[in-house]
Every structure is written in C-alpha cells, then in structure tokens.
Amino acid sequence: MIADRCGEISRKYGMIATDICKTETVRSVFIIDGEGKVRTILMYPMNVERCIPEIVRIVKVLQASG
Fold it and tell me: In terms of C-beta density within 10 A (0-12 exposed, 13-18 middle, 19 or more buried), how is residue 6 classed?
C-alpha cells in the first residue's frame, strides 16, 4: 500500500476521474507481483467502497496459480 499525497502516481496511472473532478481519484487497486508486473487493476466509482474480501480473494488466487 502506498500514499500519493501529491497525486503524482494518480496522474501517471490515469486514476484521476477528470469527468467528475480535476483532483480526486477513482477508487483504484493495483495488484503487482514480486517482479513488478501488474496482475490486476480494479477501479471503483468514487461513491463505492473497495471490497476488501474480493481483493484478498484475488491475491490468494494469484498466489496459488503461481
């Protein structure tokens, strides 16, 4: 997990919902493996919370599949 207080990473990865606001991000989750490869991207609307059980399930599946 990281914090992006300046918004640099958010802008770089297209996480700013510019159709809604120029500074706020959509709810984004990037699951990155140990080699730096992005394995999963989940994006939720700003008014929807992240689903932690689903994120944990995805991580477990990715770990089990190698």
Answer: exposed
Task: Look at residue 59 and tell me if it is in a domain.
Answer: yes
CB-based contacts of 22, cutoff 8 Å, min separation 6:
16
Residues spanned by the domain of 27: 8-64
Nearest alpha carbon to residue 15 among 3, 6, 27, 5 = 27
Identify whether 1 is part of a domain. Answer: no
- What is the pTM for the complete model shown? 0.68
pLDDT given at position 5: 80
Number of domains in the chain: 1
Residue 31 lies in a domain: yes
Residue 63: per-residue pLDDT: 93
Instruction: Tell me the Cα Rg of the chain.
Output: 13
